[in-house]
């Protein structure tokens, strides 16, 4: 129930939490198939670009939510290291979890060996603004990166972007390759320049560009509450699926309790038996899907679309999957 506020720094352009007094536990979630597929695609692209030195050393800064590229990288002949310099430093959604951004980035660049590369993957701020993904903002996620802001942060640390790759994950994810300045490498390529142009168009450094995010907080929450209330009035049973951190603010803003949503299903054993923070809604295992006989299953994480194939009995019994992002202004057909 702590305040959740985004601050846009007028100096460096970094979007970040204004304050975060929480010390949240991070129950390990199940990695979506979309994230696994994107990681494999990314490793292939990085290899094709020549950034994976034969028998090189790799170190990974991962996300507390799970997921790792190390297995795929070591399969390609790289050697994993827990400390010391490395030819490849990989950060896959890890940096945003650091309360001290300057220190965290300095730690990563200091470990890049001469001639090495730093790979940073992030959910693009332009995507968050453009798709009004306001519930990407959450406690424990201290920073939200545009390529513009990240380029300035890297420059202060003596690094410069070399190239970048875009992915559809989360509506628009970027993997940025950066190298130490003064090593005789070419500067930012067309892929990086294109991202910077997109940032300018999206207004990632303009506070007014964020106004739609705030307006959508209230609209999306009202749409969810009204839909759940209508389903209950019609006598239809609804359960949730995906006890994700992005669902917490939405459920709290929408004033949803277990009368409207009796349970959220999640396959992660670490989350089962707990509840959605700020609500009285319990989190249960997949067995509850069959036990509850729902008419609709509200999917809180669109990236978990593979659950339809994992639980065919839901639709066999006549129930439907409903994407929470499709409610209201994203009208369901």
What this model shows, in words?
32% of the residues lie in helices and 20% in strands. It is α/β, with parallel strands linked by helices and 333 residues long. The strands form three sheets. It has a six-stranded mixed beta sheet, with helices on both faces. A five-stranded parallel beta sheet has the order 12-11-10-13-14. The radius of gyration is 21 Å and the shape is globular. The chain starts with 5 loop residues before the first strand and ends in a 10-residue tail after the last strand. The mean pLDDT is 90.
Described by the principal axes of the CA atoms, the overall outline is globular
Strand order of the largest sheet: 4-3-5-6-9-8
Q: DSSP helix count?
A: 11
In quaternary terms, these chains amount to single chain
How many distinct beta strands?
14
Radius of gyration: 21 Å
SSE order: EEHEHEEHEHEHEEHHEHEEHEHHE
Q: How confident overall, as mean pLDDT?
A: 90
> Alpha-carbon distance between the termini?
34 Å
Q: Please mark out the parts with pLDDT under 50 across 5 or more consecutive residues, or reply none.
A: none
Share in helix: 25-40%
Structure class: alpha/beta
Strand % is 15-25%
Largest sheet: 6 strands, mixed
